[in-house]
Automatic annotation (TrEMBL):
<dbReference type="GO" id="GO:0007409">
    <property type="term" value="P:axonogenesis"/>
</dbReference>
<dbReference type="InterPro" id="IPR003961">
    <property type="entry name" value="FN3_dom"/>
</dbReference>
<dbReference type="InterPro" id="IPR001870">
    <property type="entry name" value="B30.2/SPRY"/>
</dbReference>
<feature type="domain" description="Fibronectin type-III">
    <location>
        <begin position="389"/>
        <end position="483"/>
    </location>
</feature>
<protein>
    <submittedName>
        <fullName>Tripartite motif containing 46b</fullName>
    </submittedName>
</protein>
<dbReference type="GO" id="GO:0001578">
    <property type="term" value="P:microtubule bundle formation"/>
</dbReference>
<dbReference type="GO" id="GO:0001764">
    <property type="term" value="P:neuron migration"/>
</dbReference>
<feature type="domain" description="B box-type">
    <location>
        <begin position="210"/>
        <end position="252"/>
    </location>
</feature>
<dbReference type="GO" id="GO:0008270">
    <property type="term" value="F:zinc ion binding"/>
</dbReference>
<dbReference type="InterPro" id="IPR036116">
    <property type="entry name" value="FN3_sf"/>
</dbReference>
<dbReference type="Pfam" id="PF00097">
    <property type="entry name" value="zf-C3HC4"/>
</dbReference>
<feature type="domain" description="B30.2/SPRY">
    <location>
        <begin position="468"/>
        <end position="711"/>
    </location>
</feature>
<dbReference type="InterPro" id="IPR013783">
    <property type="entry name" value="Ig-like_fold"/>
</dbReference>
<dbReference type="GO" id="GO:0048490">
    <property type="term" value="P:anterograde synaptic vesicle transport"/>
</dbReference>
<dbReference type="InterPro" id="IPR013320">
    <property type="entry name" value="ConA-like_dom_sf"/>
</dbReference>
<feature type="compositionally biased region" description="Basic and acidic residues">
    <location>
        <begin position="585"/>
        <end position="594"/>
    </location>
</feature>
<dbReference type="InterPro" id="IPR000315">
    <property type="entry name" value="Znf_B-box"/>
</dbReference>
Length: 729
């Protein structure tokens, strides 16, 4: 048993290095945990901050000081050595400390920096300074067990309220008063029938501490949770803060068990590999012996070389050594004897003169010869070109579009390494990143289908090669159309005016060229302003459902009307063209104003007029909401005046049309952002066709389906992309 106790005390003694404060180099007292996880005495930390220029922090009372009177102060507190001022100065001058708060005109800094000696850097304490650092109760308990085992096992705890020199040995301790009492003093300070009589009794001790850790910001709140993301303890109030929203928070009991299991496994691993540790210690000791021998051998060689050089120089001093011998040599008068004996002296003198003129130490005090020259290896490593992951791709907004499907196109930066394949992630807005679908493609474009209508999708892409995946590109937002896309072509069966209208081979583009007929009517235009409207319709007739299509109008067009109308009325209008200056017809009104029908019936036509870089939005009760949305979207009426008859706005890059056949409503959109421009009624009692009307020169082009287009062909319109989500709201 005595051998066991001796071994135990020896082990406890060797543990003392772990219990020292890095500032005062004494066993820690009332330690606090810095944000870097190192522990330091509270008083030492306070003095270091004061030395750094911060104001004196308000410290809590000593744990072993139950009252404020001097005779109740702990004896250990009175004899505890204070941190050495020169050591504090060294900490502050070593580069690990800064000097905030030195300016007299400025107040205390918002964030305190503590120079941590073990870290060798400044540690940010926060705005509240040491008040944010919690006590290390576990370390206090270890220190108490250590002191009881090593040095204080036979030291009696004296009553802290007896007046010296009649102080008695303490028999009880009070956890609430945080003091030790003898029997008489305990009865005196804990009268029967008072609240103090209910205080908790403990064994007498010199170090009282709180029962549990409490939150430094919310007094008396227990730390019951642990934030894995921030790696800090939380109380029930701190858990509700916005800063911890979405963080992984677990009960402190769970974190306790997890960390305890990890430390137990690590301890068992080290203890089970003691032979390996001892082998490594032996190798280190052997290496230390070899280093000592090498240093001693080098020291001897250098000392010997320097001694020889000193002896040689001393021989050059007058009346000593070589000089005295040379003077005696010059007294020789026999020529042959002199020449025979003086040649070696001449050589030695010449060498001495050269050593005087080119003096250098024969031994270098540095250890440069022990350094390994790795310049060649460093150059070889520098010249190596390691494979790097691709850089973040750049989305090509000129080719990316959202129509019947999503078409995403991108490119790699010029200084990026090639990519073997790409990973495209797309999700609906509101879904967290990583929760969407992934598509693996080998090219630099991707087509995504099976999408929901009238939804905003967020897309991003990253490249991959042998080095792994690179960074994601910036996110882009694509808004899908509000209804299924209608695919149709421009109908040429109604006998186009070949001298004024020209269709492309694909029948998706049309251009109106003012020809000879308008030139011949120029003389009439000065008096009655008669102009002819050229009509184009789609080759489909809508009889049910909701449909959406888009087109783009050339900004330089004179007047172009885009809309829908009854197929029968459109044929009638084509075969019996109306005078555009006549008051009997106004295409923007949507119906023949001279008709005999009731004013409550929906009009057979519904058009919007565009021309000269502007779009005209008629004003009506049905379109008020859409016009308001368009004004709120950021478009302003720059040139055209606002009036009850309507307003003009800049021409959008693309115009979208959505027809609801069952409701008899047609809505026009800015297809670039899918914001509604104008909404109105239309007669859907019979088949309805898309219609286009040209007045003067102009051109338009229908939007091509993503499913039918060539991936390498540049689309005719830009993508519906918003740089921020707030722009889509």
């Amino acid at each position: 048993i005595s051998d066991f106790r001796g071994t135990f005390r020896s082990n406890m003694k060797s543990m003392e290095q772990e219990l020292l404060c890095p500032v005062c180099k004494d066993i820690v007292k009332q330690p606090i945990v810095l944000p870097c996880l190192h522990s330091v005495c509270l008083m030492c930390a306070s003095e270091v901050l004061v030395q750094s220029g911060y104001p004196q922090p308000e410290l809590p009372p000593e744990p072993n000081s139950p009252a404020s009177t001097p005779n109740t102060r702990s004896p250990r507190q009175m004899r505890r050595p204070m941190p050495k001022s020169d050591r504090v100065d060294r900490l502050l001058r070593s580069g690990s400390g800064t000097y905030p708060g030195r300016r007299r005109k400025e107040g205390p800094p918002l964030v305190m920096l503590f120079p941590c000696a073990p870290c060798g850097r400044d540690v940010e304490l926060g705005e509240r300074g040491l008040a944010d650092c919690m006590r290390n109760l576990t370390l206090e308990r270890i220190v108490e067990r250590y002191r009881h085992t090593v040095s204080l096992g036979s030291v009696a705890v004296m009553c802290q309220f007896c007046k010296p020199p009649q102080a008695l040995e303490a028999t009880k301790g009070c956890a609430d008063c945080r003091a030790s009492f003898c029997n008489e003093c305990f009865k005196l300070y804990h009268p029967w029938g008072t609240p103090r009589a209910q205080h908790e009794h403990v064994q007498p001790t010199l170090n009282f501490r709180p029962k549990v850790l409490t939150c430094p910001e919310h007094d008396q709140e227990r730390l019951q949770f642990y934030c894995k993301s921030c790696q800090m303890l939380l109380c029930s109030l701190c858990k509700l803060r916005r800063i911890h929203t979405g963080h992984k928070i677990a009960p402190v009991t769970q974190a306790y068990q997890t960390l305890k299991d990890k430390i137990t496994k690590e301890l068992n691993f080290i203890l089970s590999n003691q032979e390996m540790v001892m082998t490594q210690i032996t190798q280190l000791e052997n290496r230390q012996t070899m280093l000592d021998q090498a240093l001693e051998s080098s020291r001897q060689r250098r000392t010997e070389a320097l001694a020889n050089q000193v002896a040689e120089k001393r021989s050059l001093v007058e009346h000593a050594g070589l000089m005295a011998f040379t003077q005696e040599l010059l007294k020789e008068n026999d020529p042959s004897s002199f020449v025979h004996a003086a040649r070696i002296t001449h050589n030695r003198l010449a060498q001495s003169i050269e050593s005087v003129q080119r003096f250098s130490l024969s031994a270098d005090p540095s250890f440069r010869h022990f350094q390994l020259d790795v310049s060649r290896e460093l150059k070889l490593l520098t010249d190596l070109n390691f494979i790097q992951a691709p850089l973040a791709p750049v989305i090509d907004t000129q080719r990316t579009l959202a129509y019947d499907q999503l078409f995403l196109c991108w490119r790699l930066p010029q200084d990026s390494t090639p990519a073997w394949h790409y990973s495209v992630e797309f999700r609906r807005r509101g879904v967290v990143p990583g929760g969407g679908r992934l598509e693996e493609v080998t090219g630099t474009c991707a087509v995504i289908d099976r999408l929901e209508m009238d939804s905003v999708y967020v897309l991003r892409v990253r490249g991959c090669n042998k080095a792994g995946f690179g960074e994601y590109s910036e996110e882009v937002y694509l808004h899908t159309p509000p209804a299924p896309v209608l695919n149709f072509y421009l109908d040429s069966r109604w006998g186009l005016h070949a001298d004024r209208l020209v269709l492309s081979k694909e029948q998706r583009c049309a251009r109106s060229v003012p020809g000879l007929s308008l030139l011949q009517a120029a003389d009439r235009a000065l008096t009655s302003c008669h102009l002819t409207a050229d009509l184009l319709v789609g080759d489909v007739a809508i009889t049910q459902g909701r449909h959406y299509w888009a087109c783009s109008v050339e900004p330089g067009s004179y007047l172009v009307k885009v809309g829908v109308g009854l197929e029968s009325k459109l044929q009638e209008w084509f075969h019996l063209p109306q005078d555009m200056a006549s008051p009997r017809y106004d295409p923007d009104s949507g119906h023949d104003s001279g008709a005999e029908d009731s004013s409550d019936s929906p009009p057979p036509f519904s058009f919007l007029t565009m021309g000269m870089g502007k779009i005209y939005l008629p004003s009506s009760a049905n379109s008020h909401h859409a016009n308001a949305n368009y004004r709120e979207s950021g478009f302003t009426n720059g040139n055209g005046p606002s009036s009850p008859a309507g307003v003009t706005y800049p021409l959008p890059p693309r115009l979208g049309v959505c027809l609801d056949f069952e409701k008899g409503r047609v809505t026009f959109y800015d297809a670039h952002s899918l914001r509604p421009l104008w909404e109105g009624p239309v007669d859907c009692s019979a088949p309805v066709c898309p219609a286009f009307c040209f007045i003067g020169g102009g051109a338009l082009q229908l939007q091509e389906l993503v499913a039918n287009r060539n991936a390498n062909q540049t689309p005719v319109r830009r993508v519906t992309i918003q740089s921020r989500v707030t722009k889509l709201n």
